[in-house]
Amino acid sequence: MEQTKYVVKRRNHAHLYDERKVYGSAYAACYVVMLNHRACEKIANKVTKNITTLVHKKKTISSTEIFHHVIRELKKHNKNAAFMYETHRDIA
């Protein structure tokens, strides 16, 4: 049975992990730097897959930890998108 995963937010409250939020923010970061739709989807899918794998290895994870892992994953694909994600935390 799959165990429920929680993300501890910046103000110390917890939410269920939602991979759509990771996908949306990664996609938005790619879109803002003018990547085409297909490239945005491809990168966002890869980032989401890797972050979801990381989250499932833990009982809880902080949103800050997810944030830093997303930056690392985005840098593997597009440094400009990673920069936008890192400096514009609310773009999605």
Automatic annotation (TrEMBL):
<keyword id="KW-0067">ATP-binding</keyword>
<dbReference type="Pfam" id="PF03477">
    <property type="entry name" value="ATP-cone"/>
</dbReference>
<dbReference type="InterPro" id="IPR005144">
    <property type="entry name" value="ATP-cone_dom"/>
</dbReference>
<protein>
    <recommendedName>
        <fullName>ATP-cone domain-containing protein</fullName>
    </recommendedName>
</protein>
<dbReference type="GO" id="GO:0005524">
    <property type="term" value="F:ATP binding"/>
</dbReference>
<feature type="domain" description="ATP-cone">
    <location>
        <begin position="5"/>
        <end position="92"/>
    </location>
</feature>
<keyword id="KW-0547">Nucleotide-binding</keyword>
